[in-house]
From TrEMBL, chains A, B, C, D, E, F:
<keyword id="KW-0808">Transferase</keyword>
<protein>
    <submittedName>
        <fullName>2-dehydro-3-deoxygluconokinase</fullName>
    </submittedName>
</protein>
<feature type="domain" description="Carbohydrate kinase PfkB">
    <location>
        <begin position="265"/>
        <end position="313"/>
    </location>
</feature>
<dbReference type="GO" id="GO:0016301">
    <property type="term" value="F:kinase activity"/>
</dbReference>
<dbReference type="InterPro" id="IPR052700">
    <property type="entry name" value="Carb_kinase_PfkB-like"/>
</dbReference>
<comment type="similarity">
    <text>Belongs to the carbohydrate kinase PfkB family.</text>
</comment>
<keyword id="KW-0418">Kinase</keyword>
<feature type="domain" description="Carbohydrate kinase PfkB">
    <location>
        <begin position="1"/>
        <end position="221"/>
    </location>
</feature>
<dbReference type="Pfam" id="PF00294">
    <property type="entry name" value="PfkB"/>
</dbReference>
<dbReference type="InterPro" id="IPR029056">
    <property type="entry name" value="Ribokinase-like"/>
</dbReference>
<dbReference type="InterPro" id="IPR011611">
    <property type="entry name" value="PfkB_dom"/>
</dbReference>
Length: 334, 334, 334, 334, 334, 334
C-alpha cells in the first residue's frame, strides 16, 4: 500500500490532569502532538499507511516519542535523531469563558534545527502517494523551510498529491523571512488547499468576507494565482464559549460548491487538534470517496475529535462514517 | 425486615480514568456492576434489606467483589464461590456524538456456568418478599436460565412479588435457546413488568408505536397474554447526544395511565446503570408509596444516576424525594 | 504598596478526585479555602498586596497551609499558630440535579478558638488600606467575634475602607449570641456592603423582593440604618441546575443604580468560592476603577471562578478584563 | 457464630499518595483506622465474626466510614451516629532515618464525646464471646472511659474473655483523670494482657528491664496485682531505621515462657497498625489454637502487616499460617 | 534484517497502583504481557527485529494490545484477530514475606482457542531466523499445542534456530494431554534449551540436584535424549524474601561449563517477567556475542528487569552491557 | 534578618509517577529544582531568610515557578522575567543496578540567556550576608558567567561570606570558555569551598587521592592558590547500588581536620539534590553553629534528603538536629 507522507515537528504536550492549571496540582500527563503528526496519526487510525518524517531528540524522551508514533503504526524509518531536545508545549485547558492557554518551549528544538542535508528525500518518499504540509514548518526556521521545500519539489516531481494547510501563526515567523512570500512558493507545489477565507486573503492580499459567495470568489482567485490548486476545503467554527462550539464545512472544487449541515458540539473535551482532524478527514475522504463525501467526512472527523483529550483523533473510519449516517445521539456500542 | 432478592451476574467494570480511551492511558479504575446487582445496591441505598445471589470466583478478585457488596450492606450469605473467573467488562465512556463502547469478557465466567444445584433456593428465599430478575440472566446459558427458573417458581409459590426487566440483548442468547420462548415462560412467574413497547412487541409479536395510546394497548395485550402481570412501567429517553438526555416515565396499572414530566439531564456523567436505577426506583416506590409516586420516584432515580460515575446509583431515598419535590437547581447542601 | 487585610478561618478542603463521592474512591485531593482567604488570594492574583490574618495549627498541616498562602504571595506575618487543629471540610461536587454536599469539621479548630489577645492589631494593620470581613467569622465563636470587632474598630480609626459580606449561615451561630445584633454592630464599622436583598432583609427586618426597585429601596433603608455604608453590591444567580447557572450583578451607590448583562455559565466546574470571587472583584474594582466598572469586574470575576476547581479564583486582572471586553468565546491563548 | 467485640474510635486517615509530604502534592488518599477497629478488621479477615461499637458522624463521611466497616463484613448494628464530626488524622510516612509523623484532629470527635447512655450494652453484647479494649479509649474523655467501663463490667458478668492492650500515650489523657488509676481499674476486668515491660512497669510502678527474666518476673507481679490476668503477650521490635525492623514475640501464661524466632522485615511499607495486627493475631490464635501457636500467629501477623499500606492487616488466616510454616521467601502465588 | 519469531498469548495485566491489593483501592493500571511476548519485546528493546504471532480479540481492548506491540516496534502483521476476548490476569505485588498473587482469566481467551488453520506459517516465518517458544503455549489447549507444533516443524525445516523455555506449570494442562509427552515432542524441534534442573528432571524422569556437577550431568543426559539440543542455559535464584533476591546463571554448551558471579538485587520493584528477560538476554547474546557472554548478558538482563514495574524489560543493549562492565552502583546518567 | 543570596537557574523537573520510565506511563509529576535553588529552599526550610535570584519565563509556567519559590517563603523580588522559556529536565529514577537518567532541555532557557544588565545587583544584595554559587551557572553561557561574576564582586565588596560549590560538569561548558580558568577567577571571590578532592585536583592540576591525608594536603594547596578560601567541606559517598548508599563528611578549616561517622541510607527514595542539601546544611551550620557541627549538620541534612522525592530537602532544622542526636531508628512522631 502506497504511503501518505507527513512532515513536521513532534512536540511533547504536557497538561495538568483534570483540566486544572499548573499552579493547582503537580500531577500532569503528557502526549505527543504537532499539527502534521496529528494529521498523520489520524490518517493511520482511519486505516491509512502513513510515514511521518521529523527530527527527534536522541534520548529517552525521543525514544518515548518514537514509540508513540510506532504505537499508531506510523512508519518511523525516515525519522532523524539529533542531540537537540524535543520541543515541548504546556497546555492549560479552559472552560466556558476561560480560554485555553499554551506555553511553547520549541524554538531551539531538534526539529526547528533541521536542515535539508539531514533528510534523504529520495528514500523517504520512495513509496509515497500523498504529501501533507502546514504553514507551521516554514515558520520555524530557514532550515525547516528549506527542508520542506526540497521535499515538496520531489513530491510533485513524483506526481504525488500535495495538500497544504497554510495556517499562518504570527507568533512564529521570527527567523527573518516573509511569511506570504514563503507560503506562496510552497503552495505552488500543492494541489489541495485546506484553509479558509482568512488564509486566502492573506495570500491574495484581498478582503473577502465569510459568506459562501465570497468563499467561492476567493477560491476562484486562489486557483488563478496558484494554478496547481484544484480544490479548496474550509471549515466554519461558531464558538458559544470554550465548552460549546458548532462546526460546518464547505468546499469549492473548481466545479461546484457544497457545504455540510452544522454539527453541534455541546460538551467539548479538548479542541486542540480539531483542525488537524479536519485535514486528515479531507485527505482520507479524497483518497477513498468523492469530494462531497470527503468534505462531510472531514467535518465529522473534526467534530468527533472534540470528544477526545489530547492532540490525537482516535476515531477510526467506521466511527466517522457512523456520524455521517446521522448517528449523533450516542447510543451505546455493546 | 423482609428481604428483596436480586439474582444475577456480578461483573468487574474497568474504565480509563477521566473518560479516556484505553489506548490513551494505562491508568484505569474498576467498579463492580451487573444489571441485577445495580438494582440491588440502589435498593439498599434507598434503605431496603437486599440479598444478592450470584456465583463469584474463589480468588482475590472474588473477595474484592464480595467486599464491594458488603460495603453497600447487601446480604451476601447466599453467594456461591467457584473456580471460574469473575466476568469482566471494559467501558470507554463517550461524549457528545461519540458513543460509549463496551467490551465483554463474560462468556465462561463464574456466573455464566452456574447450575441449579449450586443454589439452595429454599434457604436463599426464606426471608424474601420481592424477587427481581432481568432478561440478561436467561440469555447467558442454559444453567443460569434454569437456576433462575427454579428461583422464580419458588418465589411465586411463597407469594413474593416478582418484577421482570425482560431486556432483550441480541448479542447474548448464544447457547441455543429461543429468547422469546424462554422469556415468556419466565414472565408467567412475574407480577410487575418494567419495560417498554419494544419489549412488549418482542413478546407479543406486535408492532405498537411509542405513542401513549399504543403503550396502553400494548400493556393491555401483555396482561391478557401474561395474566400474572399487574403493572407496566416504562421510561422514555430522548437523546440529544451522549452528554445530554431527557427522560420521562409512564405506567399502566390495569386501571389508569400516568406519565411524569420530562427531566432534562444536560451534563451526563455516566449513563450505565440508569435503567437499573429506574427499576430500583419503581420497586422501592411500590414497596413504600403508591403506583403514581413509584413512577415518579423511578424517573427521578433514573435521572440522578446519570450524575454518578460507575454502575451504582449512590442516591439515597432523601436525595430522590428531593428531586420529586422539585429541587433540581442544585442548591449546595451544607 | 498599602495592604488589603483579610481576616478569617483557613480551612483544608478535601474532595474526591474527578467529582466522585467519598464512598466511590479513596483518591482525594486537598486545597485550602475559607471565605475571607478566598477573597484575599483572589485579590493577590489580581495584583494586590494582601495580608491574611488567621490562627493556624502548629503542625505539618499548618505548615502546609502557610506555604499555600505564601504560594499566592500573601503576607503571612500576622498569622498566629496554635496547638488546635486546622479546620477541615469535605466536599462532594454535584452535577445536574444533584447538589454538592459539604461536611464540616471546624467547630474546635485553631481559628474558632482565637481570642482578641492573640492578635496584635496595631502591628497587623500598620500598613493597611482596606479591611474585608464576612459573617462567617462572628458566627463561629465569641472569641472570633470579639477579635474581629477589635480589628474593625482599629481599621475604622485608621480610616481604612471596610467591606462587609454579612453572609448569614444558620448552621453556624451556635455559641449563644444573636446573629442580627452582632452583625449590625459590625456593619456599623463598614463602608461597602457586598450582599443582596436577603441579607438586607435579615438586618432590617424587612421583606423586600428581588426586583430592582426593591433592591434600591432596601439599599436606601440600609444606608439609613447603617450610615457608614456608602455602596451596596449584589449579584443575582439563576440556577438551571448544578452544572449550569447564569449570573449578573447590580449596585446602588447612593446616587445611581446600575446592573450588568447576564453571563451564561453553561458548564460549571466548581461553584465554591464564586461569591468570594465576586467580593474580590468588587474590592479590586473599587480600588482601581470606578463603581460601575467595579460591578462589571466583580461579575466577570465571579463568572470565571466557576471554571476553576477548588476554592481559589486563579484569574488575574487581565483574564477578567478580557471578559469585560466581551471575549467570552474561549479563543485559544497561544 | 459468637462475636468478638471491639470498641473504640473510628478515625479517617489521610496520607499523601506515594509517601510524600503534604507540602509536596495535594493528591492524597484516605482509609479508616483506629487501634481497636484495626484489631476488629484483622480478626474479621482471619475469619472471625466481629462487631465493632463506636460513635460516628451522621453525614456522608460517616456513611463512608460505616460502608468501610461493612466492606470487611463487620457487624455495624451497634454503631451510634451523632452530629459531631468523625475524627481525622494526617500521616506522613517516613523512610530510613526520617520518622513518620502524625497530626490528629480528634479531640471533639463523635467518639470522644460518647457517653454511657448512648450505647445499649445489653443488646450490643448479646452474642459476644470476647471483648477487646485498648488504653486509647479511656484516655480520650471521661465519657469514653465510663462507656468502656460499663461495657467491660457487663462483658465479665457474661463470662466473656477480655483482652487489654493498655497502651499508654501521654499526648492524650488531657481530661483530668489519672491514667494509672483508670487503667488499673479497667485491667481488673481483663483476662489477657497484650503489652510489654513498659506497660507493666507503668501499672506496677516497677523498673523491670527488657530481659526475658525480667519479663517473666514482671508478668508474675502483674498477675499478683491483677488476678484476673491469665496470660501476658509481648512483642519486641528492633528498629534499624524507618524502613527496616526486626520483630519477635514472647509470652508468659502463668506456667511457661515461650518466645518466637525473630522475623526480619527488610522493606517496610507501612508500620501503622502493626501492633494492632499483633493483638488480633494473639486473639485469633487463642480462640483457635494454643498459647504457643497464638504467640507465633501474633508475631507473623504483625510482620506481614508491615507489607500493607494503610492501617488494616489484609492478611487472612492462610496467609499468616504460611509464614508460620516458614514460607518467607515470597514465592509467587499463581 | 532477519526476524526473531515469538509465538504465544498476549495477556492484559491489571495491577493496583502503588503495590496495593485490589480491596484497598480501585485505582489500577494495565500493561500487556505473556511470557513469549515479554521475550519478544525485550529482544526488540535490545535492537532485534521481532515478529510476535498471536490471536487477539477484535475489539478496542485488542486494538490497544496491538498498539502496545507496535509501540515496541514489533511486527504485528501475522497477528490474528478473533471474536473471543483477550486473556486477562490480575496481579497483586507482594513485599518482604508477603508473596505476589495472580488471578488468571484466560481459559477461553482469543489465543487459547487458536487452531492451526488460523496461522499462515509459511508467510509468518518467511523472514525468520530464530523461533522462541515456551511450555505455556502447549499447556493451554489442543489447538494452541498443534498450532505451535506446525510452526516449529516449519521453523526447523527452514533451518531456523529454535529456543525452548519448557516451563512446566501444573495449574495449566487441563485439556487432557500429557505434559511430558507433549513437551518432549516439541523439544525435538529445538536447539537451545533455556531451563534448569527441575525442567530437565521433568523431561528425563531423573532426580538431579542443583549442584553444578548434577547440572552438567543432566544437560548431557538431555542432549542424549534430545539430540537437537546444543546448549543449555539455567539461572539460579536465591530469595531472601519478596523484595530481595540474588541471581546467577550457568550453562553447558556440550563443551564447557560456565557460571556467572551472583548479582544482588536488594530492592526488587517487580519480579514478573524476569525469567523472560533472562531468555531474551540469552537469545540476544547468542545472536550477537559468544556463549559465555550470552550467559552473562542473560543474567544481567534478568537482574535489571527486577527494577522495572510491569512485565516488560525496558533495558536496551547498552544498559545491560553496562552492568556486564561492572557498573552496578547506579551512577546518575546525565 | 539579613539574607542569604542564591543565584542560579530554576528548572522544571518532570518525572513519571511511581518511578516508572516515560515509555511506561503518561502520568507524570513536576517540581522545580536547580542546584542553587535547592540550596536556597533548604536554607529557608532550616529557618533562613533567603533570596533567590534568577531569570524565569514570563508565562503561566514561570508564574507557577515563582509561586513555587514563594511557597517556601523565598524572597522572589529580584527575579527577572523574560520571554524565553523556563528550562526543563526529565528524570527517570533508577533502582538497584539501574541508574537514574536525566534529559535536559535548558540550553536556550530564560536563565541561560541572562546578561549582567538584567540584574540590579546593588538592590538585589542590599540586605545580603551570604552568597552561594555553583559551577553550573558559569558553565551555561557567557552571560550567566558574567552576571555571576558581577554579583560576586559586589558581594565581596560588601563583606558577605561567599560559598562555592564548583561542581564541574563536562556536559555543559559549550559556549567556548575554559572551565578551569573561569572557575578559578570565581573562587577568588569565595571564602567557603564545598567540594572534594576531584574538584580541587581539577582546579590545582594535581592528583590527590581520596585519603584523609591527601584531602588535607589538597585543601592546604587550595588555600595557598586561592587565599580567600578559609574552609573546605567534602562529603564521601559509597554506593552499594542506586537504592543503597553510605555517606560521611569531612572538613579542613585551616586548623584542624574532622570527619563524621558514616550514615547508612538503606532505602533511597531520591538522590537528586542531596549534594545541595549538604551545601545548605554546611551554610546553615556555619551561620548558626561551629565548624564541626556544621559538618555534622551538613552530613545529616544530606542523608535525610535521600528520603524525600523531588529536588527539595523538606527537613527543617529540628529534623536534622534529631539525626545528629542519634535518632536514626525512625520512631513515629505523634
Amino acid at each position: 500500500m502506497k504511503q501518505i507522507i507527513t512532515f513536521g515537528e513532534v512536540l511533547m504536550r504536557i497538561s495538568p490532569i483534570g483540566n486544572k492549571k499548573f499552579i493547582q496540582s503537580n500531577a500532569v500527563e503528557f502526549y505527543f502532538g504537532g499539527t502534521e503528526l496529528n494529521v498523520g496519526i489520524s490518517l493511520a487510525n482511519f486505516g491509512g499507511n502513513v510515514k511521518h518524517i521529523s527530527s527527534i531528540s536522541d534520548d529517552f524522551i525521543g525514544d518515548t516519542a518514537v514509540s508513540y508514533l510506532n504505537k499508531f503504526d506510523l512508519d518511523t524509518s525516515s525519522i532523524v535523531r539529533s542531540s537537540r531536545p524535543l520541543g515541548v508545549y504546556f497546555l492549560e485547558v479552559g472552560a466556558v469563558m476561560r480560554p485555553s492557554s499554551i506555553s511553547y518551549n520549541r524554538s531551539h528544538s531538534s526539529f526547528s534545527e533541521i536542515v535539508p542535508s539531514m533528510v534523504n528525500w529520495e528514500k523517504a518518499l520512495e513509496n509515497g502517494k500523498w504529501f501533507h504540509w502546514t504553514g507551521i514548518t516554514p515558520a520555524l526556521n530557514n532550515g525547516s523551510h528549506q527542508t520542506l521545500l526540497e521535499g515538496l519539489k520531489l513530491a510533485r516531481k513524483k506526481g504525488m498529491t500535495v495538500s497544504a494547510d497554510p495556517t499562518y501563526r504570527s507568533g512564529l515567523w521570527k527567523y527573518g523571512e516573509d511569511a506570504k512570500e514563503v507560503l506562496s512558493e510552497l503552495i505552488n507545489y500543492s494541489t489541495v488547499f485546506i484553509g479558509g477565507v482568512n488564509e486566502m486573503n492573506e495570500l491574495l492580499g484581498t478582503t473577502y468576507s465569510y459568506s459562501n459567495e465570497d468563499f467561492i470568489e476567493a477560491s476562484k482567485a486562489l486557483m488563478v494565482k496558484f494554478p496547481s490548486i484544484e480544490k479548496v476545503f474550509d471549515k466554519i467554527r461558531t464558538s458559544i464559549n470554550s465548552s460549546w462550539h458548532k462546526i460546518k464545512a464547505r468546499m469549492w472544487n473548481g466545479l461546484e460548491f457544497k457545504e455540510t449541515t452544522e454539527l453541534d458540539i455541546t460538551h467539548i473535551v479538548d479542541r486542540i487538534g480539531t483542525g488537524d482532524a479536519f485535514a486528515a478527514g479531507i485527505i482520507h475522504g479524497l483518497l477513498n470517496f468523492n469530494d462531497d463525501k470527503a468534505m462531510e467526512f472531514g467535518n465529522a472527523a473534526c467534530a468527533i475529535k472534540h470528544t477526545y483529550s489530547g492532540d490525537v483523533n482516535y476515531a477510526n473510519e467506521k466511527d466517522v462514517l457512523s456520524i455521517l449516517e446521522g448517528n449523533v445521539t450516542g447510543r451505546l456500542n455493546r
